[in-house]
Here is the input.
Amino acid sequence: MHLPISLSPIITLVVPFLVTLFLLPVQATAVSLDARRWELTADKLTRLEDPPALVAEGNVVLEKKAPVDGASAPRQPAKELGPAESAPDSAAPDDRPTTNLKTVTTIKADWVSYDLNRGLLNLKGNLSINIGPDQLTADAGTIDLEKSTGSFENATVVRQEKELHFEGKLIEKTGSLTYHIEDGWVVTCKLEPGQVPPWSFAAAEVDLTDGGYAVLSQTTFRIKDIPVLYSPVMVLPAKRKRQTGLLFPSFSFSDRDGFGVEIPLFLNISPSADLTLYPRYLANRGLLAGAEFRYVIDDNSKGMLMGNFLADKLSDPSEVGYYQDGQFTHTNADRYWIRGKANQDIGPWTTRLDLDIASDLDYLREFNTGATGFDFTQENFVGVFGRGFNDKTNKFRDNTIAALRSWDYGGSLLVEASAVNDISEQVYTADNPSRAWTLPSLTYSGLVPITFLGGRPDFQWDANYSNFWRDKGVGAQRVDLMPMVTTGIPLSPYLEANLTGGIRSTSYLIDDNGAAGWQGKDTENRFMSHLTGEIGTTLMRDFAVNFGETDTLSHTVRPFVSYSHTSIPNQKLLPQFDDVDDLEEENAFYLGINNFFSLSGKRNGRDFDRDFGFFKIKQGYDLRSEKSNTPLTPLIIETGLYPTERMRIKYTTDIDYYGGGAFLHSIEADCYTNRGDRFSLDYRYNEQENVNSIRGSLWYLLPYNMAAGYSLERAIEQKETIEEIIRLRFIQPCWSVELSASNTPGDQTFMLTFRLANIGNPLGFGLPGI
Here is the structure.
């Protein structure tokens, strides 16, 4: 027999025997009563005798309390209800302090029964449990207090760290923060109540581990509950911290490569380092293996290293169509590209590493798309390090390591080593040598004021030692010394003048290395002097305008005249390694004028100013006798315009006065918007180097969550399209799908790429995002 107990709207009853309640670790039974406590509130409480049980009905709330920051909370034993005994209408508070306690777990339900003998909780109606990173809701459930386990019907688990959303007909809680789910699905983005997930992974079984992984069996990837892909096993990272796991695959089909699939695997090595593997299977070529290692210590110490390798089935002399259609010239079947960059502060030294090693030039053109393609690699490295790689058409790939140390007095030491990956397929001989490697180069430079002359002149110097090495052809050790003195000249308050003078001595210790022209010549030396000066003035004026927030247009104009003289008394043939060896005499005046424009005003109550444009023009007059018939140097014109803060247009041209006309044109333009639209254009024309090409790209956000992109690279003189790419992307808040088509000589490739929220965003470098 039992007595119902009518209570006031909400009363509180301390239940000391629930110390080992659900969601505590199993070891919690050993924790003293003073360390933890639970509180139960309900509209109605009933104590049953046979079997012994406590029943709570109506707005049942069970809260677990814990001391804040480890503070102890002494407690007094609470009075237990005897058989058929009623709780008072208003429960008097005990004398335990509560100011040092916080709620760490909350359980809510319409009806709760606690079995005193077996330590089981039965819960029904609007069941919800909130603990740390997890929220669980269900129609009904059972909890074993001793084992911290339970099972729940028609349940949902939301892991807040990553907005990871699980649902299942049956969810079993197997540990403190581990679950087993049957006939369920998972999605890694936030859902509104009752919302159909835009995408999900449905699985016969799901195991959610405390280590941060969701292991799915018999998995189908669904879009709007429509099965699209199947996988027998899948592992998903289940928290925002970087976790090892498979990233979402991409699929492609190519006329040349056949069907392709890439399934990246992300490996979390440590909190500051990770490794991503990019195995890409191409039906007609084999397995293109790829890997990317990254580490970050701080903003000044970070690195990325990437590599790809393919044992290419198509790179065989018998594949005549492959070579003809693609206009390829390589003959090697082992294809690879290794690249990387690192910035590292080591004590007082600042170091830089740049790697760029390719098996052949065709590789960079063929494998240009995807997460390990040239375009994305170039964009990614420029974004992270501020520097990229040589253009994919460049046959000479630079590899350097450098360390720089500076001192407060104005001096610095630069230590460098450089190697050239030559993929030109040219055959070199001792008399037709390859590009030289620098192993090593030491440069000591600095600038200090000459104090005994009043501090007006500055003494600066550059001292360099370089050891140039070639496998075939002349090498040398070179010492280049260049002291200079620079001073300003106070002509008048309206004129600015400066003068720089110095000498330069360059000495060579030569190793002929089989080069016939250098046999018997052990040393060479070149001495030269140089003098430069400039006189100019700067004029400024502000114009009142009314362009929205802009009220002032500022114009700065600086006309100048400069003179440059270089004398080499005893010119002789020198080994050729870089521009230092190819210096020529000079005796010329230059006349130029520079114009700069800027805008200023108020925006949101604050002053602002920004660049608006520039215009520069310069031409020289050569005084050397051998140039008496053509003394005018090419006219150089540079202009730039910044119509908005997100738009840049720059144009450069060189014009030959003696009948050659404009032999160089360069146009660079780019624009982007707050929405994410982007446009860029790059045009190059150089008659002397036989270059005439254009490259452009456009990315535009369309209505109905669509976006489209187009890029084109074309050799105008050869009337050949180097590469053309069209992309169409459908964007949703937590996923996107992109279809792209790439057209290169001899091949057309289609690629389908899915991007899912919170699937693969490690280390902050940025993978292809939504």
Q: What stands out?
A: The chain is about 5% helix and 60% strand. Confidence is low (pLDDT under 50) at residues 1-36, 72-98, 760-770. The radius of gyration is 37 Å. The longest helix spans residues 374-385.
